[in-house]
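Many introductory courses stop at the sequence. We go one step further.
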Amino acid sequence: MDLDLSHRFTFAASTTYTDMDGRVVDLTTGDGLALASASHTLTGSSTTYSTVITSNPVFSKTSLETAEKSFVEGTYSNIGEKMTLP
């Protein structure tokens, strides 16, 4: 189970991976895209959101702050209304 969970993050930009037994594992989310995608769709709106930080920066204090800002400013309800988070 731990290996399977780690693969969710390792292959976050992919929609499938092949496990060590040769089985194809589907990693798509509810909108049919990869977990890490810049264009996730909402069910009740044409609004999209991203789970990827622009330009895929190397981890640093600045990139973490960018990710946190994106999380706070880029969160929407399923009908496209902007949500505020603490």
